[in-house]
């Protein structure tokens, strides 16, 4: 994390931002995932208090929040952020929808040996990045996968059925370094 902070500080100074401002910018960057989650919570609570039924969070918001939370956790460990990839989002979404339709988590084949797939389901009222990522991080095996240092990209899929959310997170790794995992 110190290396990333030093690189960011150097770039900010190069662009004319004073070091005191660089610390402020770093603080704001760390707060973005938390602010996104708080906004989702506020909208949900507002819907409940106004008498509107709770609706599942929008797919794009969950994707963005999960990607931000994963990268936040990785940055805390000094790892680089992973970029989301549309193709992986699409593949993860397809699996999540099949899981929701069948009420089970499918085994995902990986003939090239470069894919890591994490899966879970939970009540859609708990469909937020903190709950999703923390559940993965509470499993030693899944935490090791999320915090591995050789990922190229990630994708997130979320499907809803009967007030449950089916979550799929896919990571790509260079061929030959992959381990598949499902929860």
TrEMBL record:
CDD domains: CAP_bacterial (cd05379). This is SCP domain-containing protein. Signal peptide: none annotated. Residues 67-164 form the SCP domain. Pfam families: CAP.
